[in-house]
Amino acid sequence: MTNYIHINETSKEFHLTNGKLSYIFRVMEQTKILEQLYAGKAIRHQESFAHLIEREIRPSNNQVTGDHTTSLEHIKQEMPVYGTTDFRYPGMEIRYPDGDRISQFEYRSYTVVEGKKRLPDLPATFAEEHEATTLEIHLEDRYSSLMLTLSYTIFHAYSALARHASIENSGNETFQLERLMSLNLDLPMNDYDFIHLHGAWAREAQLERKPLITGVQSISSTRGASSHVHNPFFALAKKNTDEQQGEVFGFSFVYSGNFLAQVEVDPYHVTRAMMGINPHQFSWELEPGSLFTAPEAVMVYSDAGLNGMSRTFHDLYRQQLISPKWSGRKRPILINNWEATYFDFNEEKILELARDAKGLGIELFVLDDGWFGNRDNDAGSLGNWTADLKKLPEGIAGLADKVHALGLQFGVWFEPEMVSADAPIHALYPEWKIGHPGKNISHGRNQYVLDFSRPEVVDNIFDQMDTVLSDSAIDYVKWDMNRYISEAFSQALPAAKQGEMMHRYILGVYALYTKILTKYPDLLIESCAGGGARFDAGLLYYAPQTWASDDTDAVERLKIQYGTSMVYPLSSIGSHVSAVPNHQVARMTSLKMRSDVAAFGTFGYELDSTKLSEEEKEIVREQVAQIKRWQTLIHQGDFYRLQSPFEGNTTAWMVVAPDKSEALVGVYHVLAQPNPAYERVSLAGLDEAALYQLDGEAMTRFGDDLMQIGLVLGGNYIGRAQEYWSRTMPGDFSSQLYHLQKIDKSEDDG
After folding, report:
1. How confident is the model at residue 364, as a pLDDT?
2. Is 368 a catalytic residue?
3. Is residue 463 among the annotated active site residues?
4. Which of 186, 303, 475, 480 is catalytic?
5. Which residues, including other chains, have CB under 8 Å from residue 414's CB and lie 6 or more apart?
6. Where are the domains of the chain?
7. Whether the predicted model's global pTM rises above the 0.85 cut
8. What pLDDT is recorded for position 352?
């Protein structure tokens, strides 16, 4: 027993709690199966939680002859199995040598670990002994030599629980693992709304909220990546829960491949929530002596609304998932040449852009696609990571030296997982691309996917990247992925193991990240997948920031960044000021609007700054200077969503310093309105008793005033009627940032 894990030995009840969250389950008397009792707001520990057991007599199949209370269909469980009296979707499914799928994993023992073990070959949250406590429950299959371990980590400082499962074959037979969910939670009621993030290319992270229905609701990916279509996150919120108040459970998958997140409501209103590797076309041979570890899922509980849930995810991922090297470190403000030049550039043009960027205060220049092979368009050269000397006579190394000489950091674009038909490795090793050699292999963007389930492929790409990185002074890599996996087949795997390919692929991606970062620990990697197709917690473990979307339009980004912030911290959200008319929607927005949106992310530029007027360049200089002043606040502060772009014309959000000494508020209007209604934006997270000064103005306001009444967006024109009629109208797509600074009361009193 610890301060965080309480065990009632006699009744075999386990209570994980940290004063914020309680999670309680027990071992059932006759079957030795784990029964879920409670998950939610922290409650006091008791010597018995038997009062939480519910056993009605219902028409059902029962495991124990003569006992009509042993139907698993009516019992809340930790790792349910289909068919042994439970007809709901299972958390686990194993095919035995006889062809049956009948399992019963029974409790054997437990282990308590101070801190948290690292998962083999997988990204996961991490914690030292003083930061978390882990409970491992060991179960054994009644019918085989399979051992199942369920791992529960409760973080001391956060209302969060990390879960994963692993299964080991200690016998002499081979089994097929067909499903292993990382998390299952059976909740006793169904009075929740299902919240998730859906989308497509250029419109990721669209927020949707729907009531639960009796039956099954799910989001998933079968594309080989977590995908634009569904982010591996969902929440179950009480009906009255909004951004600022109410109860909500949030679930996030620390994984970048195919996933399933599913909610099933049964006829008795029990809600089964599960998350894990998508079982569609998944199987894993459990050979004698082998161990399979499922990825980690994180559950967050909040009674402070969706914002409370998000801030827990943000804090947890900043401190316990993102590399400590980057979690509290300032990120360089960058400029990327993609929208400035696309494939049409040479060294002279790149250096011209870099010199101009230096004059604007920008810190990092990033060379995007087109620097390698004969890459003048997207028809070829992927997998041939040698510099095009026609464009760059001294290669990447020479260019990097020249950019560094200007006083800038230098970054470069890779798409390591892809290959083009004209690449040398495609001619030498055609079997290295994913697909069946006797069947059609489709392409996307004129490219194929390399079979990263093969270690030799990972090693080859590492060697190519290593050659570039070791010869050049490179500070940053943009790691892209522009094609999903179809026709999933590996020529290196036998028929019985083809179901392993998709998972082995993403393990290969993680292996390449690990090899790169082991040799280049100071390298900053920004992940990208056609924008946000692989914006997930798994990649944050390796790359502390992710390109949120190829759509850089400020208006579209309001929705994209608002949705993304549900689970991912602002310091991870790649956000740029790009050229207008916008290249995705052709919208014209001001430099101010574009910057005011991009400020709430990693911040950078993606345009040809040499084409800006002197007036525009001065605006950019001030924007860059502002972000440098505010970056710590934005990236380390507490984020609050105030008004949703999915619900109206106005979007508002803010970030507050942990000590509440300052705050930054963003207010955005999409369309101008004639004779508009009065409008106020109520703030959040401030010190109620403190005085705050707005943007250096003489007027001060108390924190409770700003939170209860809010910013008054209308003006006071008493005695200034003529000024009202002659004022400059903001027009469509307008924005305003408000910086609040706490001031000493004595200073205000004079």
Report:
1. 98
2. no
3. no
4. 480
5. 385, 465, 477, 478, 479, 480
6. 5-321, 325-636, 643-749
7. yes
8. 98
